[in-house]
Protein: Cytochrome P450
Amino acid sequence: MITALLFIWSSVLMFWYWYNRRHLVKLGSQIPGPPAYPIIGNGLAFWGKPEEVFGRLKDMYLMYSRLIAIWLGPKLHVALFEAKDVEKVLKLKTVEKADEYKYLKPWLGESLLISKGNKFKFNKKLIMPAFHINNLKRFLDVFNDHSLTLVETLREQVGKGEFDIDQYFSTCTMDILLETVMGISKDTIGDQAYAYSQAVHKLSRLAHMRIYKFWLRPELIFRFSKVKKEQDKYLAVVHGLTEKVIKQRKKAYESKIQQGDYNESEEKWTVFMDSLLKAKDENGLCLTDEDIKAEVVTMMFAGQDTTSTTLGFTLSLLGIHQDVQDKVMAELDEVFENPNAPVTYNDIQRLHYLEQVIQETWRLYPPIPMVAKKPSTDIDLDICTLPKDCTVGIMIMGVHRDPNQYPRPFKFNPDNFLPDNIKARNPFSFLPFSAGSRTCIGAKYATLLIKVMLATLLRSYRVTATRRERDFKLAGQTVLKRKEGFLVSLHLKDEYSASISQ
Structure:
């Protein structure tokens, strides 16, 4: 009797599972993609080291070009590579963040990166003023100071051949973020700065692992895994320091208010955390401590890895393409009469060619190679229909190499971002910070920081690199990296010019 009941119950569950998935499976089978195995789907493609997985995905992109269906276990993922398809998806109001972002939630909380609906709208409204350009200008002194420190630190590598510059960039950007986001410096927290930076890198790797290793997705399995133990260890570092600083600054802020000593106009610059502490809507509602922690942790993650990666790829490309570097240096010589002068906002506005170089770097090597969406309704494309509740992956790196938008899409060419060329393209063909309501609010901050650091560095050093782009071993985790590191050689600018002229 019990056996019969179990059989009936199992049959009912199987029928219910099949019935609710029949629409997804039917439409998914009509989308081009590699053959999928029962139960695991295409899961084997994601087995191995990050650079191996990235290589397989790259091969798939070259084979299918416009879009591709990939099954991770029972979950359907559809990757899009063309701007016109991406535009249609991102313009729909029935599209939200994909479910996969929930695996970042233990780390990044309900931040703008993850939250949805009214929560997202409320937080964004209160946070946006902190990223106003007038507020960002206040950080230029910090950017300049740390960039000059970086130049001095890098002197130890001049003339010594190729080295991985990534660690230098990571350290410098983390120091800048600690000061501008949290209002602390490595001088005051010592080894905690390095521990924090390492924890951020580790959490990024672990989150990526859980998203793509679908067997780690169920909470019951993940809870008893080694990955969960590692995650908890690094969360304690990141959240511990952040919560401590929030308490300190909140106490100091409230004390100033009570004593009548607070005057924002007299402050040289405002720390992001302070902006979040005092943010209120028209009804007097403010962000909770948990909201502030989530946004601060997200800024620290997004700001460090994306910035250092962009700097690494940019210098690598300039080291390969000396003709482009010549043009950058000519522009720097024209803008800066004094080669040692700090970079002002007016200077940044005049660095047009340097901005083109940065944009072209983002095109070929976007820091975030993919973003994921979930449609609550079917989406009709001209060649197929994307079923509701699937995960739609916007393959930014593929979109940026769409031959319909970029002639010779694999060639590094900053002229792709001349004004006339930009106007001629679909606006959704360039998405380094995503697009629509979900556009990264830190885009201006990142652009200012990257420009200041490059303008400071390239007025002192000439960069060379021996590895061609075809030799780059890309590893697409949460942020795009080079497995071998960003290998460049540095030369004193004046001495290099003299040796070339002889």
Notes: The chain has a mean pLDDT of 86. The first helix runs from residue 2 to 28. Residues 44-501 form a domain with the Cytochrome p450 fold (CATH 1.10.630.10).
